Amino acid sequence: MGYFILVFSLLWTVTWFISVFSEITSLRNDYNSGKFEVVEGLVENFDPMPASGHKMESFNVNGVKFEYSDYVITPGFNNAASKGGPIKEGLPVRISYIDGTILKLEVDPSFKYKQKNETP
Questions:
Q1: Which of 60, 59, 66 has the alpha carbon at shortest distance from 100?
Q2: What is the 3 state secondary structure string of 1-36?
Q3: CA distances, 66 to each of 11, 35, 43, 69, 99 (Å)
Q4: Is residue 45 part of a domain?
Q5: Which of 17, 59, 75, 118 is most buried, judged by most C-beta within 10 A?
Q6: 30 in a domain, yes or no?
Q7: Number of folded domains that form the chain
Q8: Are residues 57 and 95 in the same domain?
Q9: What's the first-to-final CA gap in the chain, in angstroms?
Q10: Is residue 113 assigned to a domain?
Q11: Alpha-carbon distance values, 80 to 50, 56, 61, 67, 109 (Å)
């Protein structure tokens, strides 16, 4: 029984590593080739993850929703506010992302935003 647990654990770890590594590689290649989207604006509808729970933290920026958790392994940003993350309601951000995965998070109060429904 001990060998079965050891072999199963090793196979699970190797499979998990290959899966995450291939996702990281794919996202990095897409980012480097410019295949990502950028949204700028203020953090709205911020719903933080409680310090004691495993709930997904979420927020919107200019109508784009983002969700993540410290407890979900992902190659993107996943640093919840309850664990020291920077996101908070009204924070000015610029986010580079692919399919909701945050690749680059920039926080700067000097950002000048064009709101979603604002005309140039």
A1: 66
A2: CHHHHHHHHHHHHHHHHHHHHHHHHHHHHHHHCCCC
A3: 32, 18, 10, 11, 9
A4: yes
A5: 59
A6: yes
A7: 2
A8: yes
A9: 68
A10: no
A11: 9, 9, 16, 10, 20
Domain check: are 22 and 77 in the same one? no
Tokens found for residue 15: 């499979």
Q: Are residues 20 and 73 in the same domain?
A: no
pLDDT one digit per residue (tens) for the chain, 120 residues: 888 899 999 999 999 888 888 888 988 998 999 999 999 999 999 999 988 777 899 999 999 999 998 888 888 899 999 888 899 999 999 999 999 999 999 997 666 655 555 544
Query: Domain containing 84: what range?
Result: 37-107
pLDDT, position 21: 86
Question: Is there a domain that residue 93 lies in?
Answer: yes
Distance separating alpha carbons of residues 58 and 50, to the nearest angstrom: 12
pTM attached to this predicted model: 0.77
Query: 57 in helix, strand or coil?
Result: strand
